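Hi V.,

You were right to ask for the full record rather than a summary. Here it is.
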Amino acid sequence: MKYIIAIIVIVAIGALSLYISVGDELSDVVDALLSVKPGYLVVMLLLMLGYYIVDGRIMQVIARQYNKDYSLKQGFVNNMVGIFFSDLTPSATGGQFAQVYVFRHQGVSGTCASGILIMALISYQIVIVVYAAVCMLLRSDLIFSGGVGTKIIAAIGFAVNIGVTAVLFIGSASKKLQNFFINRCIKGLSKLHIVKDYEKTSKNLRSVFKEFRIKSKALFSNKKLFFTTLFLNALKLTMLYSIPFFSFLAVGAKLDITRFPELLALASAVTMFNTFMPIPGASGGSEGSYMLLYSYLGSYLATSSMLVWRVVTFYVGLLIGFVILIVSKDVRGYHGQEMEDIEDDSCSENNTEE
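Predicted structure:
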């Protein structure tokens, strides 16, 4: 029931954002959507499918450090289930629990599963931050030219991702900073009643920092694994960031291939902003940031392309994840609960090489 409610919330917020952005141009938007060019729509769907497959490949590459028989199909299933539950929970917090559950049904123990997800997160955070930094440096004239709104979107998204990455890396590497963060910051938040249980929160954070430190060392020491995951993450993000260009073409925008880099750079800013939106599916934030960043190409074209882009990049994945949730034997019995790890987690850092 809670996931049905989450879907209703996503659709409602998305519909409100659409209503606000369309204004008096509803008829133009409807006309543009009715005339969507199927060839470009197919290209978008193939790019999104490629994104999901590459993401599954990342899971496979890392998981094979612990289970040499782990397949691409298993990685794809694991990834799509994670996407489904992430899309239905605020700040994408539900996906990891589901993925650990699926990993265990696929023959990967709980602690190993957590390590795989941490390694995947490390490589993803590095690539998404570097990718956005390069885009901002090369196309700062475009990203920061749309007024205060675009500047805020780009700045917040970049700052949040940099901050999260820095806290994880520095906090896990520096015991002094870790103790300061836990003893001062978390204790201060507990006094303000923002953090309810200081002891439990501090214990969990120490565990997170320790696990992150162990897994980051393991990832960096395996250069082949490290650079493979960086390349695959860059590839999947390029596929994702390419979709707005084709969504504009699909609704009739006159763009030549020379405009591709600028739309790709703006897509990077949209993704950065939406990464930690505290709303299921980043609903509202996704639509709003897309409209702010792409409206210079024309309001009704931006709105029309945003609808096509949102369906392809969000609802298609939600549908695939839902189907896999129903039919895959790796996921049967999962209802969103966190499972207690009861397995023997003899997860050494130097297990099987791919």
